[in-house]
Write a structure and sequence with these properties.
The chain has 149 residues and is of the alpha/beta class. It has 7 helices and 7 strands; from the N terminus they run E-H-E-H-E-H-E-H-E-E-H-H-E-H.
Amino acid sequence: MGKVIAAFAGTGKSYIGGKYPKAIDLDLGSFRWIYDGDESLPYEQRKAMRMFEQNPNFPQNYIDAIIKAKENFDLVFVSNAQEISHLIDYNFIPSSTAWDTLEQRYRARKNPERFIEIFKALFDMGFTDGIVIDDNEFLEQALIKEGLL
């Protein structure tokens, strides 16, 4: 049975999901929103755009996908959303001084300004519980240090 690992945006969930065959990234946005816009835009550039409507099946569709993924993958990466907190085995959080690094990552992958603003506000709220990812470190290194990868 796989482990569910939550981590903040820009820490490397998708990278690990693409690199390791027994890992998957279940991006929250794919389950929470229905996109009604230009499908030719890369996914990272569509994030937080205003061409979305709430998926009426959320959060149950996300919960179901996580439970199913745990049967087939060793590591299931998710966003840290209140609706799924009961499913999370490990929560990785950025250090309190990591904003500049995260912002550079968002800009490098061409996330819209609105996405960056949303995650800046979430970052500024602070984190109280979780395994800290050091500045300039990615989730992959933190998982290795914790013996999870």
